[in-house]
Design a protein that fits this description.
The chain has 483 residues and is of the alpha/beta class. It has 13 helices and 16 strands. It folds into two domains: 362 residues, Aminopeptidase (3-Layer(aba) Sandwich), CATH 3.40.630.10; 116 residues, Alpha-Beta Plaits, CATH 3.30.70. It binds zinc ion (ZN) (2 copies). The site of one zinc ion has 4 residues, from loops.
């Protein structure tokens, strides 16, 4: 269904959609200023600046190095109450998480908000995730239609730096003891307004495996005098593929990919090297399978090397655990999403991805759920793969993502019947300060990208032409170009 056919329900979305242009400007400014994990100084600064204007209750910086946490207290029972009417302990506290970091890659887009930093790019849409959570902050701080505390977690370093773990190690959940935590990621292969989730594994565990092979180098013409580590590497590459097909149960999922081989010198055709090195990744959902693969890699590699008179050392590094939703929270999140976009736009049995995500560290210690939010349009906008040099976050989904965050809070901690819901409309004002620096085409950043039921059309063709948002000829179908 094209985005112009999408109707998003409810006052939360309607209110947030009113400041869609500001969210768009904020997102594009972050896009133009990407920062690597644990270096998100500008990004965290912009987040803090905006949260202050939003009027959140507390802002805590420097958690997990560059992480930021904001709290917003809802209206509800008078302060000091120990339990709710239903006997549940107070305080009720719900965590929402967004990641802030970019990737070390070169952007090949040419719209005005393309990366202004060589070799750095928001190629995974974390600029959009951060913006959606800032949008939720504005709405929640303005309306406070919930009974409890919303904890907004802006985390650093998702792309391989385990920033979520850094925040947890820094006392995140001791300082903010949330009962559940929610996160979401844009998904180019799903249409805008579609939410995907399941009550179990969402993303795989990602481990790194390095295999160091040592033989004996020598002359390629007199190979019988050597122990050829390249030949050993070739046998290992082939043999490890038997682990998934012959050791892992067919009903379990796993991938082993050896993606790098380093040996010899391309300028030395007749020199057999003394060593070779393989590097790759293992993806699993279950710790039992993970354990099995690590053991079999060790057994196979050392036995194969021994058979050739060489040695092989396996270094197995567990990086991100599997991202596993808890059943109750996943169902709750799906219900909340359904209240916004309707049953037809919520996939409740989403196929897990073998990719990985460090929100897994949060889900290891707290109940919660991780969702995918579709962003790819039929005309190609937003459908370029993550981590591709032409990728961009689709601004059309900003209000929906923000509304989803805010609705999770309102529904998880509903106001008691005796407390009147917020009804006043706050005066319209710009809440996010404009960028303080000069960048490429910043004047264009505030142009609104509209979502359907506010203005019943998708991105205006004129707007798209001006900013090169229409797929180019060489982007036709965009998948192949993006891949
Ligand atoms: Zn990524
Ligand atoms: Zn990402």
């Amino acid at each position: 269904m094209p985005i112009h056919g999408l109707r998003v329900h409810g006052r939360v979305f309607a209110r947030i959609a009113e400041f869609h242009p500001e969210l768009t400007a904020f997102r594009r400014d972050l896009h133009a200023n990407p920062e690597l994990g644990f270096e998100e100084v500008y990004t965290a600064g912009r987040v803090v600046e905006s949260l202050k204007v939003c009027g959140v209750d507390e802002i805590h910086t420097g958690i997990g190095k560059t992480g930021v946490v904001a709290t917003i207290r809802g209206r509800g029972a008078p302060p000091g109450a120990v339990t709710l009417d239903d006997g549940a302990p107070r305080p009720r506290m719900i965590g929402l998480r967004a990641d802030m970091d970019a990737l070390p890659m070169t952007e090949h887009n040419d719209f005005p908000w393309r990366s202004a930093k060589a070799g750095l790019m928001h190629g995974c849409g974390h600029d959009g995730h951060t913006t959606m959570l800032v949008g939720a902050a504005r709405y929640l701080a303005e309306t406070r239609n919930f009974d409890g505390t919303a904890v907004l977690i802006f985390q650093p370093g998702e792309e391989g730096f385990a920033g979520a773990k850094a925040m947890i190690d820094d006392g995140l959940f001791e300082r903010f003891p949330v009962q559940a935590v929610y996160g979401m990621h844009n998904w180019p292969a799903m249409r805008p307004g579609t939410v995907g989730i399941n009550p179990g594994p969402m993303m795989a565990a990602a481990d790194r495996v390095t295999i160091d092979i040592a033989g004996r180098g020598g002359h390629g013409a007199h190979a019988y005098q050597t122990v050829d580590p390249v030949l050993v590497a070739a046998h290992i590459i082939t043999a490890v593929q038997s682990i998934v097909s012959r050791n892992v149960k067919p009903v379990d999922s796993a991938v082993i990919s050896l993606c790098g081989l380093e040996a010899g010198d391309m300028g030395a055709m007749s020199v057999i090297p003394g060593t070779a090195k393989l590097v790759g990744t293992v993806r699993t959902f279950s710790p039992v399978v993970q354990e099995l693969i690590e053991r079999r890699l060790n057994e196979l590699c050392s036995a194969i090397a021994l058979g050739f008179g060489a040695t092989a050392q396996v270094h197995y590094e567990r990086m991100y655990p599997a991202t596993i939703n808890t059943v109750t929270e996943a169902k709750f999140a799906a219900d909340v999403a359904q209240s916004l976009v309707g049953r037809d736009h919520v996939v409740r049995d989403l196929e897990p991805s073998m990719g990985a995500e460090d929100f897994s560290f949060m889900l290891r210690v707290k109940p919660g759920a991780y969702m995918r939010l579709g962003q790819g349009m039929d005309n190609g906008v937003g459908s370029c793969f993550l981590h591709n040099s032409r990728y961009d976050f689709n601004d059309a989904i900003l209000p929906l993502g923000a509304a989803l965050h805010a609705s999770l809070v309102e529904n998880a901690m509903p106001l008691q019947a005796t407390v009147p819901a917020y009804a006043d409309r706050a005066p319209s004002r710009s809440f996010i300060p404009l960028p303080r620096h000069s960048g490429p085409g910043l004047e264009a950043f505030q142009e609104p990208v509209v979502i359907a039921n506010v203005v019943r059309q998708s991105m205006a063709p004129k707007y798209m032409d001006r900013h090169g948002l229409r797929p180019r000829d060489d982007d036709a179908g965009s998948r192949s170009v993006c891949a």
